[in-house]
Amino acid sequence: MAKKISRSDAIGEQGIAHIRKIVAAMEYLFYETGGVEAGIDGSIEIRDPATGEVANQIVQFQSKATRNPLPGKSELSFSWPCNENDIDYWTFGTAPVVLIVVDVKNDKAYWKDMRAWFGDPQNRATRKVVFDKSADLFNADAASALREVAQTARPGSYYSAPRQSEWLTPNLLRVSALAKTIFWAPTDAKSVREFWGRVQEHVRYPPGETILRGGAALSFHDLDTHPWREACDTGAMEEFDVSEWSHSDDPDRERDFVALLNCAMKEMVRREMSYDRRHYSLYFRPNPGGRERKITYFAEAKKADRSVAKPYRTKDGQVKFWRHSAFQWQFIRIGEEWYVQITPTYHFTRNGREKDKFGGEHLAKIKRMEWNNDVRGQFGMWRAYLATDTQTDMFSDAYPFLSFAPVEKLAADFGVPDELWKPVRETPADIEGLLI
Q1: Which of 94, 96, 163, 204 is deepest in the core (most CB within 10 A)?
Q2: Which residue has the higher pLDDT, 411 or 243?
Q3: CATH topology of domain 7-150
Q4: Where is each DUF4365 domain found (predicted)?
């Protein structure tokens, strides 16, 4: 019987060959693992093309090659599923790991830094890597970005750290007040678009705390008022105490209630913030006229200022991009209480409105630079901005359907001093000031 090499093995070799070609074009060094390996196909050593110097800066890579269409329906991006064990392996070690997906049929490859991508809890929960077909292209132009990934390597030796007690700041806010009533009314609108089209015939920018479920509208608003009655059968409207939904053990009701809370969150900050559908985050817009936006707030009993929508300029004064303070959120129920988990992040635009195609790279750089205190400081800003005691000032009048209260810090019997595990902070010249 003749020996055979499977088609998948051949495609895998084509993927490695493509990566080798790109690394050679970067003038870096390529080392294939070979033999037994647990999830690393090789490594790339950074070399200075101008001097030829090498300094043992290594990026490991895992190659995934395919001849099939890249998974996903978008022309601009695709997602790649990952195994939980692989994610742990890639993100735990001392050397940074990049995932490289090679589209063999179209002779293209795409890459992501696994530690930066899966450092985001929301990304980790999906166990998928989303690639931007423009920003994440793996070609010779990615050499400088790959060098920056190599500089994030952790020290190779770990020793027992002295324990110390410390206070922990949960990234949670307690839902302190809700709408009192949920309104339900049937509608003959055939789609969400048709429903909102009818409403917008009467109010151009209607409030958004309404969802459609099973041929009916569900809302925090009285649906027997203008403009909702124009799209609903108000004669059949029903009213429910909000607790019938917020304390329900019916998973469908709980999902619908969370959907209403998500709508309320977006509506609460609509005056100053916009929603990024792709990353499920809210971010500050510039001030009217495209001016930098700053806010003043009290954190840890101290007055603080933060630039939350800031342009970055070239030497000749042209705007390169805008950096916007942003957050992702998730409502969770603990017993009979509702909380919102706040994850600080950033959003990047070209001109204050349109997405910057290099936003993913900017965000990855910031994530590599940030320490625990940086993230805690951002959360402190969001806590001050969203919590009840500041809502009247921030939003003119307190928002009627949702409010938050701070959660007390937690005492821990032991902790590890930050300086014993974090890498040396580096601030690349091209993004100096992004954390300000």
Answers
A1: 96
A2: 243
A3: Trna Endonuclease; Chain: A, domain 1 (3.40.1350)
A4: 13-149
